[in-house]
Every structure is written in structure tokens, then in C-alpha cells.
Amino acid sequence: MSLIATNRNYRLLFSAAAVSNLGDGIAMLAFPWLATLVTRDAALIALVAAASRLPWLLFSLPAGVITDQYDRRRLMLLADVLRTMITAGVIGLVLSAPALPLADDSAQAPIFIFGLCAAAFLLGSAEVLRDNAAQTAMPSIVEKSELEKANGQLWSIEQIMGQFVGPPVAGILIALAVPVPFVVNALMFGGAAWCMWLVVLAPRDKPDVINGFWSQMREGIDWIRSHALILRLAIMLGGVNFVFFMSATILVLLSQEIYGLSAAGHGILLTAGAVGGVAGGMIGPLVSKRLGGHRTVMMTLFAFPLPLLILAVTSNPYVASIALFMEVFFGMIWNVVTVSLRQRIIPDELLGRVNSIYRFFGWGTIPLGALFAGFLVNGLEGEFGRELALRAPYIFGVAASIFMAIYGALKLRIPPS
């Protein structure tokens, strides 16, 4: 029987993920599209994307200590309330702006971009805390034997709402008025907070507090240093995410300038990735069971370069949608195997800290990838032209993905579950 039908806490967590990811999916299109209404500078647009992910580099480690020391449900609730309030501030920023789009030489553009970066940074900071708490709480909500199933279901609904439903809805909402998607986003975060308010978890034994942040963090560092597989997976995830967010950052410009898509069309393009994510989330546990964790991870690594190669050469949005499907499909299967592996073998009292170290390496590269893509486009545009410059991050991504696949084949050995 479905976990959603039999486990009340999982049902509420599932519902909170559904509504908050719908809001995230709307913001996924609304934020970069709003930035393109202010400027066409690839570096400034990348700056907005980097600001939303910079907290993963800055706050992953503190979030791990906090997650292990405090009630994880309350942390998720607090993060959702904060995201509701921050999104309300974005609405105020949009309403205070003059008519959009701004002229290319507008003196207000840098101020507006700075405001978007600040809002994106604050939202990302709350997300760091919430996601770390949610992932470390999962073993307290479902049996360890059901982790792959629970994670697959949860990530599938996140993909459905965040990338399948959210982006096209955002395209429609932007057509109504620019502030509307952010209003809906705030309502979704409020709904997620209500769901987390209703969750009831059994009290957990808190670990003995060792004085000082670094003293507590050292326990997690010592554990991950003694488990080379987890450390290597973290570093490899950093490379994968660096490449993935290079691709995602420039996609909004590729859609407008190469594919000729509107906001609604770009939203529909993003749904192709969502379909791949849903398929990966549902099929991933079956593939892992059939092939085993090691061969499944190897399959994903050697598949990653292909969608990037397609995006590097195509000018057809339908072909690009196939590439996005493949990219997210294999990325989701990677997540199903590697996250379940971590949840199964890391001790609960260290799970928050080790998870935060893992994400420091694995997610801290995301803002670097976004910034690299923007500056790479700006640096090549003058000599090679706008179109080739926009394709350059994907060409670089192909080479980097091939290198990671070879490294993984030589260094990774995933044990059976």
C-alpha cells in the first residue's frame, strides 16, 4: 500500500513538498525572466541565479550543526514562514519598479538587480536550512527499507509541481501581470508552513553538545573522511551541479534568442525536464534494484554528456526538450541511489552534519557554475559572436561530464543496498 495512504507524517511532508515546489517552479521561471526584463547582460542574469544558490556554499556547514541540535520539524516550519515573508518583499520590489522592461541604459537596472539578488539570497538561505532538515528527518518518518520508495515518491512530486506544473503556470501568470507569480509563490510557502505545523514527530535523543561549532563539526568531518565513498560522491556531485547550473543559467537566454520562445513557451520547455524527473523518480528504485547501485550510478555518469551535447548544437526547441528530459531523468536516478545510500549508512546523530558537509561540496559549486556561465558568455561574445558564446557553457559541460564519468569508473564502488 502507498506510503501516502498509510503514513500521516509522510503524507503531510509530501503535501508540503508539493505546494512549496509549485511555488519554487513558478519562481524558477519568474525570477530569471524578470531579470531579463531588466537587463540582457548574461553576467548580471547569472548573478541573480548565483545569489539564490550562494547560501549552499556559505551556510551548509552551520545548517548541519543546527539540524542535529534542534527540532527538525520546527526548523522546516520556520523556514517556510520566512520564505513566505521574503516572497512578500519581492512583490513589493516588483510593484515599486517602473514599467517593465527597462531600457538597456536605465540607471535603475543595477538597483533592481541588486534587490533581486538580495531576495534570492535570503530565499536560498531559508531553503538550505529547510532542505537539510527535511532530508535528515526522512529516516524518522519512514522505515529504512522504504527509503528508496519514499525518496522516489517525494522527488517525483517535487518534479511534477516544481518543473512540470510550475513553469508553464508562471508563463501564464506573467502574461497577466509581473507580480502575480510571486503572489502565488507566497501563498504556496504559506501552505507548506501549515502542513509542517500539523506534522507530529516522536522526540529524538539529542547528541551530547560539544562546546563550539568546530568541535561539533569535527565529528561530521571525521566521519566523512573515514568513508571515502561518501566523500567522493560529494565531490562528484559538486562537478555535476556545476555543469547542470551552467546549463540552467544560460537556458533562459537560449530560449529567447535561439529558440524564439515567449515566457509561456520557456515554461513549457522546462516541463520536459520535469517529465524526465518524474520518470527518473519512479523508475530509479526499480533500476537500482535490477542493476544494483554501482551499475546504476555508472549508467547515469556516462549518460550525462549526451544531453549537454544536444543542447550545444541544436536550435530546435523540440530537440532541446528531449535533451532536458534526459538530463533530469538521469540526474534523478543518481539522486535516488546516492541520497538513499547516505540516509541508510550515516548515523542519525551525525546525519545533519555529515549531510551538510556533503552538500557543501555537492551544492556549493552551484553559484560558481552560474557565475562561470555568465562570465564565459560575456568573455567570448565579442570575439565569437552572441550565439556561439551562448552555446559555450554546454560545450564546456560535455568535456567536464566525460571527465567525471571516467573518474567515477575508476574510483567509485557503490555497495549493494
Folded structure, characterized:
With 417 residues, the chain is mostly helical. 84% of the residues lie in helices and 0% in strands. It has 17 helices and no strands. The model has no long low-confidence stretch (mean pLDDT 85).
Summarize the structure.
By secondary structure, the chain is mostly helical. It has helices spanning 3-6, 8-36, 42-58, 60-69, 72-96, 109-141, 147-176, 180-198, 213-225, 228-257, 263-291, 293-303, 305-313, 317-345, 348-363, 366-384, 386-411. The model has no long low-confidence stretch (mean pLDDT 85).
Overall form: globular
Biggest β-sheet: count, sense, barrel? none
How much β-strand is present in the residues? under 5%
Report Rg.
21 Å
Q: Give a count of the beta strands, DSSP E runs of length 2 or more.
A: 0
Helical segment tally?
17
Low-confidence stretches: none
Average of per-residue pLDDT values: 85
The helix-and-strand class reads mainly alpha
How many angstroms does the end-to-end distance come to? Answer: 22 Å
Question: How much helix is in the residues?
Answer: over 70%
The ordered string of helix (H) and strand (E) elements is: HHHHHHHHHHHHHHHHH
